[in-house]
Design goal:
Elements (H helix, E strand, L loop, with lengths): L1 H20 L2 H7 L7 E3 L6 E2 H14 L3 E14 L2 E14 L2 E16 L2 E11 L6
Parallel strand pairs: 1-6
Antiparallel strand pairs: 1-2, 3-4, 4-5, 5-6
Length: 132
């Protein structure tokens, strides 16, 4: 169980480093590329299947000059070949010369496929006001 938890947290960390680096090739390695992949970015409708999810990352990367993401893990749970990480994303972006900071509450769901944990679902919602 400790090794699985370490693997899941490493996969979760790899996702956020790919996000920060705007590295679509790394996203290709992290995400399950099946039709069951789902993604909900803050303010977006649900994206279904790897093709839609991937296209969303390409658009985000093209329109994000600079981003830093620090995470505060709230919970990591493992249930057989499914695991999820619930966390707060602390985001800092620079857009058109302005520094913008925001928080999102996120859930990342991973599935064990062929001995490797792949991201199959990412859902982030903005935190409005202060956290308790």
């Amino acid at each position: 169980m400790i090794q699985e938890r370490s693997e899941i947290l490493a996969a979760n960390e790899a996702f956020y480093r790919a996000f920060e680096k705007k590295d679509i090739d790394a996203m290709d390695e992290i995400w399950s590329q099946g039709t069951g992949s789902l993604c909900v970015h803050p303010g977006w409708n649900i994206l279904r299947g790897w093709k839609q999810v991937r296209n969303s990352w390409v658009k985000i990367f093209q329109n994000t000059p600079y981003i830093e993401i620090n995470t505060d893990i709230i919970s990591t749970e493992i249930r057989g070949n499914i695991a999820y990480v619930v966390l707060v994303e602390n985001i800092m972006q620079v857009i058109k010369g302005s520094r913008i900071e925001a928080e999102s509450l996120a859930t990342n769901v991973f599935e064990l496929l062929g001995g490797k944990w792949y991201l199959v679902h990412h859902h982030a919602s903005p935190v409005m006001g202060s956290r308790q």
